[in-house]
Amino acid sequence: MNRFFVFVSLLLAANVANAQYEPLKQRADAFPPVAEAFDSKAIVMANTVEQMSGWDRYPTYDTYLAMMQDWADRFPTLCRIDTIGTSVKGRLILCACIKGSAANQSDNPEFFYSSTMHGDEVTGFVMMLRLIDTLLNGYGNNQQYTDLVNSVDIYINPLSNPDGTYRGGNSTVRNAIRYNANYVDLNRNYPDPFGTEPMNPQQQENTAMINYVGKHHFRLSANLHGGAEVMNYPWDSYSSYENPHPYSEWWIEVCKRFVDTSRTYSSSHFRDTYNSGYTAGGDWYVIPNGRQDYMNHFHNCREMTMEISSDKTIESDQLPEYWRFLQHSLVNYIGEIHTFANDVSIESTMSSETLDFYPNPTRDKVFLSNEVLTPLTVYNMQGIVVFQLPAGTRVVDLHNLPQGVYIVRSGHRSAKVIKR
Ligand SMILES: [Zn+2]
Protein backbone atom coordinates (compact mmCIF):
# COMPACT_ATOMS: atom_id res chain seq x y z
CA MET A 1 0.00 0.00 0.00
CA ASN A 2 2.78 2.42 1.01
CA ARG A 3 4.79 1.42 -2.00
CA PHE A 4 1.82 2.32 -4.14
CA PHE A 5 1.63 5.76 -2.59
CA VAL A 6 5.32 6.29 -3.24
CA PHE A 7 4.78 5.18 -6.81
CA VAL A 8 1.87 7.59 -7.27
CA SER A 9 3.86 10.43 -5.70
CA LEU A 10 6.81 9.80 -8.00
CA LEU A 11 4.47 9.62 -10.93
CA LEU A 12 2.85 12.93 -10.09
CA ALA A 13 6.22 14.55 -9.50
CA ALA A 14 7.43 13.27 -12.87
CA ASN A 15 4.31 14.57 -14.56
CA VAL A 16 4.74 18.02 -13.06
CA ALA A 17 8.39 18.11 -14.08
CA ASN A 18 7.61 17.20 -17.67
CA ALA A 19 4.45 19.16 -18.10
CA GLN A 20 4.97 22.36 -20.03
CA TYR A 21 1.26 22.89 -20.43
CA GLU A 22 -0.01 21.58 -17.12
CA PRO A 23 -2.87 23.79 -15.88
CA LEU A 24 -2.47 25.61 -12.60
CA LYS A 25 -5.56 23.95 -11.17
CA GLN A 26 -5.92 20.22 -11.54
CA ARG A 27 -9.29 19.02 -12.61
CA ALA A 28 -10.86 16.63 -10.14
CA ASP A 29 -10.45 13.78 -12.58
CA ALA A 30 -6.75 14.41 -13.14
CA PHE A 31 -5.31 11.97 -10.63
CA PRO A 32 -4.66 8.26 -11.05
CA PRO A 33 -6.93 6.07 -8.98
CA VAL A 34 -5.66 4.82 -5.66
CA ALA A 35 -5.71 1.04 -5.42
CA GLU A 36 -7.44 1.04 -2.04
CA ALA A 37 -10.41 2.82 -3.51
CA PHE A 38 -11.01 -0.26 -5.61
CA ASP A 39 -10.27 -2.71 -2.82
CA SER A 40 -13.11 -1.41 -0.70
CA LYS A 41 -15.57 -1.04 -3.55
CA ALA A 42 -18.47 -3.29 -4.41
CA ILE A 43 -17.89 -3.79 -8.11
CA VAL A 44 -19.89 -6.65 -9.56
CA MET A 45 -19.26 -7.80 -13.11
CA ALA A 46 -21.68 -9.29 -15.62
CA ASN A 47 -20.22 -12.35 -17.30
CA THR A 48 -23.18 -12.73 -19.65
CA VAL A 49 -25.54 -10.40 -21.49
CA GLU A 50 -28.38 -11.72 -19.30
CA GLN A 51 -26.55 -10.60 -16.17
CA MET A 52 -26.73 -7.02 -17.45
CA SER A 53 -30.54 -7.08 -17.35
CA GLY A 54 -30.70 -5.20 -14.04
CA TRP A 55 -28.10 -2.65 -15.20
CA ASP A 56 -26.47 -2.87 -11.79
CA ARG A 57 -23.23 -4.48 -12.97
CA TYR A 58 -20.33 -3.58 -15.21
CA PRO A 59 -19.89 -5.78 -18.26
CA THR A 60 -16.76 -7.82 -18.76
CA TYR A 61 -15.04 -6.98 -22.03
CA ASP A 62 -16.55 -10.07 -23.68
CA THR A 63 -20.01 -9.23 -22.34
CA TYR A 64 -19.65 -5.73 -23.72
CA LEU A 65 -18.82 -7.10 -27.18
CA ALA A 66 -21.71 -9.56 -26.93
CA MET A 67 -24.15 -6.79 -26.00
CA MET A 68 -23.17 -4.72 -29.02
CA GLN A 69 -23.49 -7.75 -31.32
CA ASP A 70 -26.79 -8.67 -29.71
CA TRP A 71 -28.32 -5.28 -30.55
CA ALA A 72 -27.20 -5.50 -34.16
CA ASP A 73 -28.73 -9.01 -34.36
CA ARG A 74 -32.01 -8.11 -32.67
CA PHE A 75 -32.54 -4.76 -34.39
CA PRO A 76 -31.01 -5.25 -37.84
CA THR A 77 -32.98 -2.43 -39.50
CA LEU A 78 -32.27 0.03 -36.68
CA CYS A 79 -28.77 -0.70 -35.48
CA ARG A 80 -25.39 -1.33 -37.03
CA ILE A 81 -22.12 -1.73 -35.12
CA ASP A 82 -19.11 0.09 -36.58
CA THR A 83 -15.54 -0.62 -35.56
CA ILE A 84 -13.90 2.76 -35.07
CA GLY A 85 -10.55 1.05 -34.62
CA THR A 86 -8.52 -0.95 -32.16
CA SER A 87 -6.64 -0.03 -29.03
CA VAL A 88 -2.90 -0.48 -28.44
CA LYS A 89 -3.64 -3.93 -26.97
CA GLY A 90 -5.94 -4.83 -29.84
CA ARG A 91 -9.28 -4.34 -28.11
CA LEU A 92 -12.14 -3.04 -30.23
CA ILE A 93 -13.39 0.53 -30.18
CA LEU A 94 -17.01 0.20 -31.27
CA CYS A 95 -19.85 2.48 -32.19
CA ALA A 96 -23.56 1.69 -32.33
CA CYS A 97 -25.20 3.53 -35.24
CA ILE A 98 -28.92 3.92 -34.70
CA LYS A 99 -31.09 5.06 -37.61
CA GLY A 100 -34.86 4.85 -37.78
CA SER A 101 -36.46 3.01 -40.66
CA ALA A 102 -37.98 6.31 -41.77
CA ALA A 103 -34.49 7.77 -41.82
CA ASN A 104 -32.74 5.32 -44.08
CA GLN A 105 -32.67 7.53 -47.13
CA SER A 106 -32.74 10.87 -45.44
CA ASP A 107 -30.11 13.43 -44.75
CA ASN A 108 -30.74 13.55 -41.03
CA PRO A 109 -28.17 15.38 -38.93
CA GLU A 110 -25.58 13.16 -37.27
CA PHE A 111 -25.15 13.06 -33.49
CA PHE A 112 -22.26 11.46 -31.60
CA TYR A 113 -21.86 10.35 -27.99
CA SER A 114 -18.61 8.82 -26.81
CA SER A 115 -17.55 7.88 -23.33
CA THR A 116 -14.70 6.81 -21.15
CA MET A 117 -11.65 8.05 -23.00
CA HIS A 118 -10.38 8.09 -19.42
CA GLY A 119 -10.55 4.38 -18.74
CA ASP A 120 -11.46 4.56 -15.06
CA GLU A 121 -14.37 6.98 -15.61
CA VAL A 122 -16.78 4.17 -16.26
CA THR A 123 -20.20 5.54 -15.27
CA GLY A 124 -20.68 6.91 -18.77
CA PHE A 125 -19.73 3.54 -20.27
CA VAL A 126 -22.75 1.86 -18.71
CA MET A 127 -24.99 4.92 -19.26
CA MET A 128 -24.21 4.75 -22.98
CA LEU A 129 -24.92 1.02 -23.14
CA ARG A 130 -28.21 1.54 -21.42
CA LEU A 131 -29.03 4.47 -23.71
CA ILE A 132 -28.50 2.27 -26.78
CA ASP A 133 -30.78 -0.37 -25.27
CA THR A 134 -33.43 2.20 -24.35
CA LEU A 135 -33.52 3.84 -27.77
CA LEU A 136 -33.70 0.52 -29.61
CA ASN A 137 -36.38 -0.96 -27.37
CA GLY A 138 -38.27 2.33 -27.26
CA TYR A 139 -38.45 2.68 -31.01
CA GLY A 140 -42.06 2.14 -32.06
CA ASN A 141 -43.20 2.08 -28.42
CA ASN A 142 -42.23 5.46 -27.08
CA GLN A 143 -43.10 8.51 -29.17
CA GLN A 144 -40.15 10.63 -28.03
CA TYR A 145 -37.61 7.91 -28.79
CA THR A 146 -39.26 7.06 -32.09
CA ASP A 147 -39.27 10.68 -33.22
CA LEU A 148 -35.68 11.14 -32.10
CA VAL A 149 -34.39 8.05 -33.89
CA ASN A 150 -36.35 8.99 -37.03
CA SER A 151 -35.00 12.52 -37.09
CA VAL A 152 -31.37 12.11 -36.00
CA ASP A 153 -28.71 9.58 -37.00
CA ILE A 154 -27.40 8.63 -33.56
CA TYR A 155 -23.87 7.26 -33.07
CA ILE A 156 -22.88 5.99 -29.64
CA ASN A 157 -19.33 4.89 -28.77
CA PRO A 158 -19.61 3.60 -25.20
CA LEU A 159 -15.90 2.98 -24.60
CA SER A 160 -13.12 5.01 -26.23
CA ASN A 161 -10.27 3.61 -24.12
CA PRO A 162 -10.87 -0.11 -23.53
CA ASP A 163 -7.25 -0.77 -22.48
CA GLY A 164 -7.61 1.73 -19.64
CA THR A 165 -10.93 0.33 -18.50
CA TYR A 166 -9.80 -3.30 -18.64
CA ARG A 167 -6.32 -2.62 -17.34
CA GLY A 168 -6.97 -5.26 -14.68
CA GLY A 169 -7.95 -7.83 -17.34
CA ASN A 170 -10.99 -8.42 -19.53
CA SER A 171 -13.00 -9.82 -16.64
CA THR A 172 -13.06 -6.70 -14.47
CA VAL A 173 -13.09 -2.89 -14.43
CA ARG A 174 -11.39 -3.06 -11.04
CA ASN A 175 -7.93 -1.45 -11.40
CA ALA A 176 -9.05 0.55 -14.43
CA ILE A 177 -6.76 3.51 -15.14
CA ARG A 178 -7.19 6.89 -16.77
CA TYR A 179 -4.58 6.29 -19.47
CA ASN A 180 -4.27 3.97 -22.44
CA ALA A 181 -1.80 1.08 -22.53
CA ASN A 182 1.06 3.48 -23.35
CA TYR A 183 0.15 5.44 -20.24
CA VAL A 184 -0.94 8.42 -22.32
CA ASP A 185 -3.89 10.65 -21.44
CA LEU A 186 -6.06 10.47 -24.58
CA ASN A 187 -7.71 13.76 -23.69
CA ARG A 188 -4.37 15.58 -24.02
CA ASN A 189 -3.52 13.97 -27.31
CA TYR A 190 -5.67 15.62 -30.00
CA PRO A 191 -4.67 18.32 -32.50
CA ASP A 192 -5.02 21.66 -30.79
CA PRO A 193 -6.53 24.97 -31.93
CA PHE A 194 -3.21 26.65 -31.03
CA GLY A 195 -1.21 24.14 -33.03
CA THR A 196 0.30 22.97 -29.73
CA GLU A 197 1.98 19.61 -30.25
CA PRO A 198 0.73 16.99 -27.81
CA MET A 199 3.36 15.83 -25.32
CA ASN A 200 3.10 12.30 -26.73
CA PRO A 201 2.78 10.96 -30.29
CA GLN A 202 -0.80 10.63 -31.42
CA GLN A 203 -2.16 7.41 -29.93
CA GLN A 204 -3.83 4.87 -32.15
CA GLU A 205 -7.12 5.16 -30.27
CA ASN A 206 -7.22 8.84 -31.20
CA THR A 207 -6.02 8.30 -34.76
CA ALA A 208 -8.90 5.87 -35.20
CA MET A 209 -11.33 8.37 -33.70
CA ILE A 210 -10.04 11.20 -35.88
CA ASN A 211 -10.43 9.03 -39.00
CA TYR A 212 -13.93 8.04 -37.94
CA VAL A 213 -15.21 11.53 -37.23
CA GLY A 214 -13.58 12.64 -40.48
CA LYS A 215 -15.87 10.27 -42.39
CA HIS A 216 -18.94 11.79 -40.77
CA HIS A 217 -20.43 15.19 -40.31
CA PHE A 218 -21.36 15.22 -36.66
CA ARG A 219 -23.28 18.42 -35.85
CA LEU A 220 -23.59 17.83 -32.10
CA SER A 221 -21.68 15.54 -29.77
CA ALA A 222 -20.55 15.00 -26.21
CA ASN A 223 -17.81 13.07 -24.52
CA LEU A 224 -18.54 11.64 -21.09
CA HIS A 225 -16.21 11.68 -18.12
CA GLY A 226 -16.30 11.28 -14.35
CA GLY A 227 -14.56 12.66 -11.28
CA ALA A 228 -16.92 15.61 -11.03
CA GLU A 229 -20.51 16.46 -11.85
CA VAL A 230 -20.48 19.45 -14.14
CA MET A 231 -21.41 20.26 -17.71
CA ASN A 232 -18.34 21.67 -19.43
CA TYR A 233 -18.97 23.60 -22.64
CA PRO A 234 -16.29 24.89 -25.05
CA TRP A 235 -13.70 26.13 -25.10
CA ASP A 236 -11.21 24.17 -22.97
CA SER A 237 -8.23 25.91 -24.58
CA TYR A 238 -9.25 29.41 -23.48
CA SER A 239 -11.12 31.14 -20.73
CA SER A 240 -14.44 32.67 -21.75
CA TYR A 241 -12.80 36.08 -21.34
CA GLU A 242 -10.09 35.26 -23.87
CA ASN A 243 -12.26 33.58 -26.44
CA PRO A 244 -15.92 32.94 -25.72
CA HIS A 245 -17.39 30.22 -27.89
CA PRO A 246 -19.51 31.91 -30.59
CA TYR A 247 -22.53 29.92 -29.43
CA SER A 248 -21.99 30.43 -25.69
CA GLU A 249 -25.54 31.63 -25.13
CA TRP A 250 -26.91 28.52 -26.77
CA TRP A 251 -24.51 26.32 -24.76
CA ILE A 252 -25.65 27.87 -21.50
CA GLU A 253 -29.30 27.21 -22.33
CA VAL A 254 -28.46 23.60 -23.24
CA CYS A 255 -26.52 23.13 -19.99
CA LYS A 256 -29.36 24.58 -17.93
CA ARG A 257 -31.87 22.27 -19.53
CA PHE A 258 -29.63 19.26 -18.92
CA VAL A 259 -28.94 20.12 -15.29
CA ASP A 260 -32.51 21.22 -14.49
CA THR A 261 -33.94 18.02 -15.91
CA SER A 262 -31.53 15.81 -13.98
CA ARG A 263 -32.24 17.73 -10.77
CA THR A 264 -35.94 17.08 -11.07
CA TYR A 265 -35.02 13.41 -10.58
CA SER A 266 -32.30 13.93 -8.00
CA SER A 267 -31.64 17.38 -6.59
CA SER A 268 -28.27 16.46 -5.10
CA HIS A 269 -26.36 15.99 -8.34
CA PHE A 270 -24.35 18.44 -10.45
CA ARG A 271 -23.37 20.42 -7.36
CA ASP A 272 -19.81 19.41 -6.55
CA THR A 273 -18.03 21.98 -8.74
CA TYR A 274 -20.41 24.86 -9.49
CA ASN A 275 -23.83 25.61 -8.04
CA SER A 276 -25.12 26.13 -11.54
CA GLY A 277 -23.88 22.69 -12.55
CA TYR A 278 -22.12 24.01 -15.64
CA THR A 279 -19.11 26.03 -16.75
CA ALA A 280 -17.13 27.13 -19.75
CA GLY A 281 -14.26 24.63 -19.75
CA GLY A 282 -11.42 27.12 -19.68
CA ASP A 283 -13.01 29.01 -16.76
CA TRP A 284 -12.72 25.81 -14.74
CA TYR A 285 -9.20 25.36 -16.03
CA VAL A 286 -7.49 25.41 -19.38
CA ILE A 287 -6.32 22.20 -21.02
CA PRO A 288 -4.43 21.74 -24.30
CA ASN A 289 -5.01 19.03 -26.90
CA GLY A 290 -8.43 17.94 -25.67
CA ARG A 291 -11.05 16.11 -27.65
CA GLN A 292 -13.81 18.71 -27.12
CA ASP A 293 -11.98 21.61 -28.71
CA TYR A 294 -10.69 19.35 -31.47
CA MET A 295 -14.29 18.62 -32.48
CA ASN A 296 -15.39 22.26 -32.23
CA HIS A 297 -12.38 23.78 -33.90
CA PHE A 298 -11.60 21.29 -36.66
CA HIS A 299 -15.00 19.74 -37.38
CA ASN A 300 -17.43 22.58 -36.76
CA CYS A 301 -19.19 20.14 -34.44
CA ARG A 302 -20.68 21.39 -31.21
CA GLU A 303 -19.15 19.10 -28.64
CA MET A 304 -19.20 19.44 -24.89
CA THR A 305 -17.67 17.45 -22.04
CA MET A 306 -20.14 15.92 -19.61
CA GLU A 307 -18.65 15.10 -16.21
CA ILE A 308 -21.42 12.92 -14.86
CA SER A 309 -20.28 11.30 -11.60
CA SER A 310 -18.22 12.71 -8.74
CA ASP A 311 -16.76 9.28 -8.21
CA LYS A 312 -15.00 8.06 -11.32
CA THR A 313 -15.74 4.39 -10.73
CA ILE A 314 -19.01 4.20 -8.84
CA GLU A 315 -20.06 1.02 -7.10
CA SER A 316 -22.00 -1.13 -9.50
CA ASP A 317 -25.23 -1.04 -7.50
CA GLN A 318 -25.22 2.78 -7.88
CA LEU A 319 -25.50 2.55 -11.65
CA PRO A 320 -29.33 2.42 -11.73
CA GLU A 321 -29.52 5.58 -9.62
CA TYR A 322 -27.24 7.44 -12.01
CA TRP A 323 -29.36 6.30 -14.92
CA ARG A 324 -32.51 7.46 -13.14
CA PHE A 325 -31.35 11.03 -12.84
CA LEU A 326 -29.41 11.20 -16.11
CA GLN A 327 -31.50 9.31 -18.64
CA HIS A 328 -33.92 12.07 -19.62
CA SER A 329 -31.15 14.63 -19.86
CA LEU A 330 -29.04 12.30 -22.01
CA VAL A 331 -31.95 11.61 -24.35
CA ASN A 332 -33.00 15.26 -24.53
CA TYR A 333 -29.46 16.35 -25.31
CA ILE A 334 -29.62 14.39 -28.57
CA GLY A 335 -32.72 16.41 -29.46
CA GLU A 336 -30.80 19.66 -28.92
CA ILE A 337 -29.49 19.08 -32.42
CA HIS A 338 -32.85 20.47 -33.56
CA THR A 339 -32.43 23.66 -31.54
CA PHE A 340 -29.97 25.17 -33.97
CA ALA A 341 -30.22 25.41 -37.72
CA ASN A 342 -27.76 23.39 -39.78
CA ASP A 343 -26.67 26.57 -41.50
CA VAL A 344 -26.71 28.72 -38.35
CA SER A 345 -25.04 31.97 -39.19
CA ILE A 346 -21.91 33.00 -37.38
CA GLU A 347 -23.09 36.53 -38.10
CA SER A 348 -25.95 36.11 -35.65
CA THR A 349 -23.41 35.62 -32.85
CA MET A 350 -21.75 39.01 -33.35
CA SER A 351 -21.96 41.34 -30.38
CA SER A 352 -22.57 45.07 -30.48
CA GLU A 353 -19.00 45.66 -29.32
CA THR A 354 -16.98 45.92 -32.49
CA LEU A 355 -13.38 45.55 -33.51
CA ASP A 356 -12.27 48.33 -35.82
CA PHE A 357 -10.32 47.17 -38.88
CA TYR A 358 -9.01 49.21 -41.81
CA PRO A 359 -8.97 49.11 -44.77
CA ASN A 360 -12.16 47.12 -45.00
CA PRO A 361 -12.83 45.77 -47.64
CA THR A 362 -9.27 44.70 -48.32
CA ARG A 363 -7.27 42.68 -50.83
CA ASP A 364 -4.74 41.31 -48.34
CA LYS A 365 -4.18 42.76 -44.86
CA VAL A 366 -6.39 44.54 -42.40
CA PHE A 367 -5.08 46.53 -39.47
CA LEU A 368 -6.65 46.79 -36.07
CA SER A 369 -6.89 50.37 -34.85
CA ASN A 370 -6.87 49.38 -31.20
CA GLU A 371 -4.84 46.72 -29.45
CA VAL A 372 -6.77 43.77 -28.06
CA LEU A 373 -5.57 41.64 -25.17
CA THR A 374 -7.33 38.48 -26.29
CA PRO A 375 -6.63 36.11 -29.22
CA LEU A 376 -8.16 36.83 -32.62
CA THR A 377 -10.18 34.12 -34.35
CA VAL A 378 -11.12 34.37 -38.02
CA TYR A 379 -14.28 32.45 -39.03
CA ASN A 380 -15.71 31.91 -42.48
CA MET A 381 -19.44 32.42 -42.94
CA GLN A 382 -20.07 28.71 -42.33
CA GLY A 383 -18.84 29.28 -38.77
CA ILE A 384 -15.64 27.32 -39.32
CA VAL A 385 -12.45 28.60 -37.73
CA VAL A 386 -10.07 29.63 -40.53
CA PHE A 387 -7.14 30.58 -38.33
CA GLN A 388 -6.20 32.17 -35.05
CA LEU A 389 -3.73 34.80 -33.95
CA PRO A 390 -2.34 35.47 -30.49
CA ALA A 391 -3.42 38.28 -28.17
CA GLY A 392 -1.81 41.59 -29.07
CA THR A 393 -1.95 41.00 -32.84
CA ARG A 394 -2.62 44.18 -34.82
CA VAL A 395 -2.46 42.84 -38.40
CA VAL A 396 -4.61 40.14 -39.99
CA ASP A 397 -3.36 38.83 -43.32
CA LEU A 398 -6.18 37.49 -45.48
CA HIS A 399 -4.30 37.25 -48.78
CA ASN A 400 -4.37 33.42 -48.82
CA LEU A 401 -8.12 33.25 -48.29
CA PRO A 402 -10.82 33.12 -50.99
CA GLN A 403 -12.78 36.30 -51.63
CA GLY A 404 -15.74 36.73 -49.36
CA VAL A 405 -16.91 37.81 -45.95
CA TYR A 406 -15.18 36.74 -42.73
CA ILE A 407 -16.02 37.28 -39.11
CA VAL A 408 -13.15 38.15 -36.80
CA ARG A 409 -13.77 37.68 -33.10
CA SER A 410 -11.68 38.58 -30.10
CA GLY A 411 -13.00 38.23 -26.58
CA HIS A 412 -16.53 39.61 -26.70
CA ARG A 413 -15.85 41.85 -29.68
CA SER A 414 -16.25 41.04 -33.33
CA ALA A 415 -16.09 42.51 -36.83
CA LYS A 416 -17.09 41.62 -40.33
CA VAL A 417 -14.17 41.84 -42.79
CA ILE A 418 -14.57 41.68 -46.53
CA LYS A 419 -11.78 40.10 -48.58
CA ARG A 420 -11.83 41.24 -52.21
ZN1 LIG B 1 -11.97 12.40 -17.70
Any key phrases for this structure?
11 helices; four-stranded antiparallel sheet; disordered N terminus; globular; 420 residues; alpha/beta; eight-stranded mixed sheet; binds zinc ion; 2 domains; Aminopeptidase; Immunoglobulin-like
Counting structural domains, the number is: 2
Output the radius of gyration: 22 Å
> What is the CA–CA distance across the termini?
68 Å
Percent helix, as a range, is: 25-40%
Shape: globular
In CATH, what is the homologous superfamily of the largest domain? Zn peptidases
Total helix count?
11
Which structural class should the secondary elements be placed in? alpha/beta
Strand content: 15-25%
| Largest sheet entry | 8 strands, mixed
**CATH third-tier fold name of the largest domain:** Aminopeptidase
Ranges with pLDDT <50 over ≥5 residues? 1-26, 30-36
Bound molecules: zinc ion
Q: In what order do the strands lie side by side in the largest sheet?
A: 3-4-6-5-7-10-8-9
So, CATH architecture of the largest domain? Answer: 3-Layer(aba) Sandwich
Mean pLDDT: 88
Q: What is the number of beta strands? A: 17
Oligomeric state: single chain
Q: Supply the CATH class of the largest domain.
A: Alpha Beta
Order of helices and strands: HHEEHEEEHHEHHEEHEHHEHEEEEEEE
